[in-house]
């Protein structure tokens, strides 16, 4: 089994290019099947969650041609089934986007219930509430969710009980081809929600207000082909920003939208980093020992839950006591036990972690419990004394393209190894 082996202690220095946003790409890929015309999607990240969704789309007859590593050409005129039961689809959360897209286009969809990272209970009641409001029946049985329109899909006024990215995107897709107007109140405002709305509009949809908490959709009869480039990944960028901070480094994060990173930049400044902002890049410099702060995860524009493990890992080697409160997912501190193996002093009480900064971290054998927690363990290992290993890197590969290579370019000592021989070779190399 492949694992990362990391010798910590090197400050990261240099430039890193950020990929297209995974969570925008998942919504956009699903939405692309809503037209029979050809769609070209650029800046697609080459990560496993995207591959899984593409396989699921191919399993129902979508034709996907890879023009290069980050560009696909999609034609969905030959879809032969609205039942998505690929063995892969259960592995990813975004499988549920096939529901909204297929329901909007064909009036029916059946999809195996979504999986995804185990970060707490992940209900889909707001998705089903939205579909029902548009005039569809929803049935959940035998591990599948089926949604089908009874008559026409009709626009409606939908008030979401919680701010949810997934339900906002799903309802937006189904409503794009419904008859009449739909209003989604208390909508999620994440950059990837806006990106999916922009993509739908580039196919001829009429979606207004994405990025605010009220989204208005006027249904259109059909959607047409387009060429669309996905926005940069806010969370990949944020992860490298914290990698610079935890290793006391100096990293230029390129190909980003600095506005999307404001809550992350603000925290790093509070902790003592210097941030220089340019049009499409950001420089993060940590030149002195960083200090404690308080963080609460919130929907955008608040501090993202997908950055919570990375900030906890970083605060574990800062001066003073920090508190990080998780308000989106209730089970997102499982990785703290792994960090404890490295000498951190973190106590989890309810949905808060109380972090007493230590002078240094020590190496350990670790396992990635989920995507972002896995990334946080990599950051901790990069800052620790000695050689650490991280298992279960498949979780990390779900969302980070070329993670070890990009870190190596910044001066990190990291390799993917799968045998004792390779581990020994790494140890000899790093001394
Ligand atoms: C998306 O998940 C992302 N996944 C997650 O990223 C991210 O952590 C999350 O949004 C929050 O930003 C994708 O985009 C594929 P939600 P999603 O619906 O859509 C509750 C990563 O690491 N809720 O915004 O599943 C829910 O329990 C992943 O890249 C309901 O109560 O999240 C949670 O508390 C992990 N009922 C809150 O809303 C519902 O019907 C936000 O969830 C739906 C959600």
Please give a quick description of this structure.
This protein is of the alpha/beta class. The chain is built from 14 helices and 24 strands. Helix 11 links the parallel strand 22 (365-367) and strand 23.
Based on the model shown, name its key terms:
alpha/beta; UDP-n-acetylglucosamine1-carboxyvinyl-transferase, Chain; 14 helices; 24 strands; 32% helix
Task: Kindly describe this structure.
The protein is built from 14 helices and 24 strands. 51% of the residues are buried. It has 2 domains: 3-19 and 232-430, UDP-n-acetylglucosamine1-carboxyvinyl-transferase, Chain (Alpha-beta prism), CATH 3.65.10.10; 22-229, Alpha-beta prism (UDP-n-acetylglucosamine1-carboxyvinyl-transferase, Chain), CATH 3.65.10. The protein has helices at residues 22-32, 48-59, 97-106, 125-133, 165-176, 191-202, 234-246, 262-270, 308-315, 336-340, 371-383, 394-397, 403-409, 420-430, and strands spanning 3-7, 13-17, 39-42, 63-68, 71-75, 83-84, 108-112, 136-141, 144-149, 157-159, 181-185, 206-208, 214-218, 226-229, 250-254, 274-277, 281-285, 294-296, 321-325, 345-349, 352-356, 365-367, 387-391, 413-417. The strands form 6 sheets. Strands 22-23-1-24 form a 4-stranded mixed sheet, sandwiched between helices. The two termini are 24 Å apart. 32% of the residues lie in helices and 25% in strands. It is an alpha/beta fold. The longest helix has 13 residues, at 234-246. Residues 23, 26, 93-94, 117, 122-127, 162, 164-167, 188, 305-306, 328-329, 371-372, 399 line the site of ligand EPZ.
